[in-house]
Structure formats: C-alpha cells, structure tokens
Write a structure and sequence with these properties.
The chain has about 400 residues and is an alpha/beta fold. Helix content is about 65%, strand content about 10%. It is built from 13 helices and 7 strands. It has a 5-stranded mixed beta sheet with strand order 1-4-5-6-7, covered by helices on one side. The longest helix is centred in the middle third of the chain and has 39 residues, at about 230-265. The termini are far apart. The relative contact order is 0.08.
C-alpha cells in the first residue's frame, strides 16, 4: 500500500480556510474507502492539490506511476478539497501512466473541476514540434550556414534600403517645406560626432603619419632614396590612410553611440511612442544623425590628412634630416588636388554606410541589456567591414579609370 498524508498548513497570506496537505491512499475495492469494481485497486485522493502543496506528494505519485497496480485501477477524487491546474496536471499524468498498463477509471470529479481537467487534457494532447536535430553531416551544415547567412544578408539590405528611402522621403518633405528642418538636432549631432572627435582623430593621424614616415625612411635609406618617403606618405595618407582610419574610428566611436542611443530608446518603447503620436522614428532619430555624419566625416578626414602629414614632416626632419621646406616642396611635386579629392570623395559614402548600419542595428534591439550589447558589437563590426569593402571598391574603380 502507498500512503502519504500531512497535517494542516496555513496558506501564506490566507486568514480564512486552512490548507489541507494532499494525500494518496491505495486500497482494494470494497475493503476500504473509495468505490471500484471487479476487485481492482482504488487510489483515493484527498486534501488540497494546489501548486503550493503538491510538492510533498509528487514523489509518492511518481512511485505510484512506476508501480504495477494490476489491470484495473480506479482513481477516486471525491476526497479532494481544492485543486488547481498543477494538481490536475499531476493527477492526469498519473491517470495516463496507469492507463498504459491497464484500465483506469477517474471518478469523484465535480462538475467545476471537470472543466479544469478537460483544459489540462487539451494541453497535453496538443501536438508539439520536435526539437530540430543537429545535422552531423558537415557538407550539409556548411551549405545550411551559407544559406542562412545569405538570407540574413538579404534582410539586412532590405532594412538598410528602408532607412535610406525613409530618409530621402523625409529630406524631400523638408526641402519642399512640408516638414520643419530641425537644425538644432543636426548641429547637436555634428558637435557630438565631429567637434568632440577632433582630438582623438588628430592624435591618431599624427602618430600614424609619423610611423609610416619612419618605416618608409628606414627602408628607403639603403637605396639612397630617402627623399621619396615624402611621396610615399603624401600619396598613402591622402588617398587611403587618412579617410579609412577616420571612418574606422568614427564607426567605433559614433556608430556604437548611435546604436546604443536608438537601442535604449527601443528598449524603453520610446520609438513606439513616437509612432503613436504620429512622428516617423526615422525622420526624428536617424535623419539628423545621418546628415551630421555625412557633413563631419569629410571634415574629419581632411584634419586627419593634415595631421598625418604634420607627423611625417616632424619625423623626416628629426630622423632623416629633411627640413620642412624641402618636405613641402617635394610634397607639391608628388601630389595634386586630384590626390586630395580621391580620398575625400570616399568620406560621404562611408558616413552613410556607418549611419545606416548603426541605425538598423539600433532598431533591432530587443528588451534586454544583452540584446543591446550584441547589436552594438554587430554595428561596429559590420560598419568597419563595409567601410573597408567600400575602400576596396574605390581602389578598383580608380585603377580601372587609370587614376
């Protein structure tokens, strides 16, 4: 025989009826409590089968499920005082487990409790999707990963085009006077992304220019062509290094800030609030940042070029003995205005890419801090990758036109 009983227990926060511990008593039909037929076994349930009380009866129910109780079992619920979903689930599991071994009859269930049992049965009978099995065949997994990546990339492109389209639509409405131009927002973003970034951009470019000049002079010295380090620094800094490193720095500094700002607003449902009051989130949040980036990145790239050449001039003067006058004279012979604009023309394209990727990742942030961190990281990584990719496309284009 299996039996588990408990005494009285006052429910938390309850001042009226006391909670009776659940019990399960097994007996032969006709020899004790319960009703049954054919000399089968009767399982009499009593007490309150609630979520806060069934913990003390779960082990007994589990042992009963595994036991061989014969071919005919009656589960008598007439002694149950109160029962909730958790208790009904436990009783229904017991009924189904014993039903796999023989005939089981559930009796003593009141009309109100019967509806609860029906709801539990429907939930248990509902089909559940089987968990996806991990494919162990490496080739299939490889193509699966490629397909998922391409599908995700397509979604990223569509999302980026939506932001571009909404920004262009907003720009058209502002140009035609249908919407007010928020110059204060644009100027504020220019200050944050441009003016405050000048010190770090200038220092970085100065050091990079100095390093390129020192290494170039060290290698060219053995050929007696140390003066050509000016050509090397001038062309490399103005065409490639200045704008590329500036864009990478802005992607890490301002791109991550855009994603974090929009993402935190998405977490606090401020973006949804803008839509509720009839404002376009792209026009309010993305457009000023996109315009500010497009303006300040070429200016920062120009500052980076000047500081890079200044660092190279200082190193060639102290390390190679080339005075500033000779450096400037040689630089004028090595470059022209086309060299300067070949680098600066890339900056607006890189700025637009950084702004779009940062805004897109910010809009995808969920409701957790973990999601915010993941999308900020993704924003920086994707921006830097696309900036380098765009720089490569420009290099191929310049080579194709012979410039």
């Amino acid at each position: 025989m299996t039996k588990a009983e408990g005494g009285l227990d006052q429910a938390p926060g309850q001042t009226g009826r006391q909670t009776v511990a659940p019990s399960l008593v097994a007996d032969k039909a006709g020899s004790g409590a319960g009703s049954g037929s054919g000399g089968g076994l009767v399982l009499s349930l009593a007490g309150d089968w609630l979520a806060r009380t069934i913990g003390q009866i779960e082990k007994t129910v589990e042992d009963t499920r595994r036991s061989d109780l014969g071919r005919s079992v009656t589960i008598d619920c007439g002694g149950i005082g109160r029962i909730d979903t958790s208790g009904a689930f436990l009783v229904e599991r017991l009924t189904r487990s014993l039903g796999e071994k023989g005939a089981v009859e559930l009796s003593g269930v009141g009309a109100q409790d019967e509806r609860l049992f029906q709801a539990v049965r429907r939930a248990l009978d509902r089909d559940r999707a089987e968990p996806a099995k991990k494919d162990t065949f490496s080739l299939v997994g490889l193509f699966n990963g490629i397909g998922r990546t391409m599908f995700a990339a397509g979604g990223e492109v569509v999302g980026g085009l939506n932001i571009v389209g909404a920004s262009l639509y907003g720009a058209g409405r502002r140009i035609t006077g249908k919407t007010q131009v928020r110059m204060a927002a644009i100027v504020t973003q220019m200050d944050r992304m441009g003016v405050r970034a000048v010190p770090i951009i200038a220092l970085m470019s100065f050091l990079i220019g100095a390093i390129i000049a020192q290494q170039g002079a060290f290698q060219l010295r053995s050929f007696g062509a140390e003066i050509f380090v000016v050509d090397l620094v001038g062309i490399l800094q103005l065409r490639e290094i200045g704008v590329l490193l500036t864009a990478i720095m802005i992607a890490g500094r301002s791109g991550s800030a855009i994603t974090a700002e929009i993402g935190s607003m998405k977490m606090r449902e401020e973006v949804d609030a803008l839509q509720v009051i009839g404002l376009n989130p792209i026009g309010v949040l993305v457009f000023p940042r996109l315009v500010a980036l497009t303006i300040v990145l070429p200016l920062l790239a120009f500052i980076a070029d000047i500081m890079g050449l200044a660092g190279a001039m200082m190193v060639t003067w102290t390390y190679s003995g080339i005075p500033p006058e000779a450096f400037i004279q040689r630089l004028r012979e090595a470059i022209d205005m086309g060299t300067v604009f070949a680098g600066l023309i890339k900056a607006p394209f890189m700025a637009i890419i950084i702004g779009i990727v940062a805004a897109l990742e910010g809009m995808k942030v969920g409701g957790s801090a973990e999601s915010l961190g993941l999308h900020v990281t993704a924003s920086v990584v994707k921006s830097i990758f696309l900036v380098i990719l765009v720089d490569g496309f420009f290099a191929i284009f310049y080579a194709a036109i012979g410039y």
